[in-house]
Design brief:
This protein is of the alpha/beta class and 305 residues long. It has a single domain, classed as Spore Coat Polysaccharide Biosynthesis Protein SpsA, Chain A. It is built from eleven helices and eleven strands. It has a seven-stranded mixed sheet with strand order 3-2-1-4-9-6-10, sandwiched between helices. The N and C termini lie far apart (43 Å).
Length: 305
């Protein structure tokens, strides 16, 4: 699916994955359409929902030709598969940039133009930023993801919330080609933001993580991931770690991107598992935060990897 618009400013195709978002999606769309000094077209893929999200989106498409709803297909069951569908089915070629959007956030008006300036001035392939997490009770906090990048951090983490991601069109088209060729394997990765970051970085493309937050990242009971804040979030992540969820996802990422890593000798490959020797030798390059590097080293020392 494509748009027929002509563009006077830097043009963005915004890929928005939606599901049961009636409570928030109108405010999110308003904040996207009010972006300053850019041309925006929003493509929405709606997972089968039980509320009136579909009706609200249809009303918006009737009022604004910059909002396009993709045809309904089978249920996705998660945001990642929905975003992969958007990359596959939207014709991206006529845009300068591709941005990802959740259904429930609020974008500051300069979010997209800031991404354009960073990518254009610095020659980067992709961009993301810190975010302002906010809760219904009015509490706000910064989600800081802009620590200096490490050579192999993408094997263990994303660049931050996917709703802050912006890719140059060349990068997006290359990822789309890879995604289409490896459809089943990529769709098995549960976190699209991690998958995209890992693919970009493993292909030696540059990624800028902005320390300025341009998005208000809404926190509520139905967030699929959300901010890593508070006791409940820590317990949830500890449970996933104990159940082996992270280990499985790391293996999936490794299998998909390891062939792209030019500096790794084929003799180091060990099936679907990151070789222990490679991890130990490069432990300082595996996570951006010192705290996370210490945790990873401890897990390796205890034999939990």
């Amino acid at each position: 699916m494509k748009s027929t618009k002509t563009h006077l400013f830097p043009s963005f195709a915004v890929l928005l994955a939606a599901y049961n978002g009636a409570e928030w999606i109108e405010k999110q769309l308003k904040s996207i359409l009010e972006q300053e000094k850019v041309d925006v077209t929003v493509f929405i893929s709606l997972d089968i929902s039980s509320d009136n999200t579909l009706q609200l989106i249809r009303e918006c498409t009737e009022k604004n030709k910059s909002v396009i709803l993709l045809p309904s297909i089978d249920r996705f069951g998660g945001a990642a598969k929905n975003f992969y569908r958007l990359f596959r089915d939207v014709e991206l070629e006529s845009y300068d940039y591709i941005a990802l959007s959740d259904q429930d956030d609020i974008w500051l008006k300069e979010k997209l133009i800031a991404a354009h300036r960073c990518i254009d001035d610095g020659g980067y392939s992709a961009y993301s930023s810190n975010a302002i997490a906010f809760w219904p009770n009015g509490r706000e906090t910064i989600i800081n993801k802009s620590q200096p990048q490490r050579r192999y951090d993408y094997l263990f983490e994303a660049a931050g919330p996917g709703c802050t991601y912006v890719l140059s069109v060349d990068t997006a088209l290359k990822f789309k080609k890879y995604l289409t060729k490896n459809w089943a394997s990529v769709n098995d990765v549960a976190l699209h933001d991690w998958m995209i970051y890992a693919w970009v970085r493993s292909n030696s493309m540059s990624w800028f993580i902005d320390n300025v937050p341009y998005i208000k990242y809404r926190q509520h009971a139905t967030n699929q991931v959300g901010a890593n804040q508070g006791i409940k979030a820590i317990i949830s992540r500890a449970k996933k770690l104990n159940e082996g969820w992270y280990k499985k996802e790391i293996k999936k990422i490794w299998c998909l991107v390891a062939p792209n890593i030019k500096e790794i000798s084929p003799s180091l490959f060990d099936g679907d598992r990151i070789p222990l020797l490679f991890l130990v030798r490069n432990i300082s390059q595996m996570r951006r935060r010192l705290r996370d590097r210490i945790i990873l080293f401890t897990l390796l020392f205890l034999g939990r990897y």
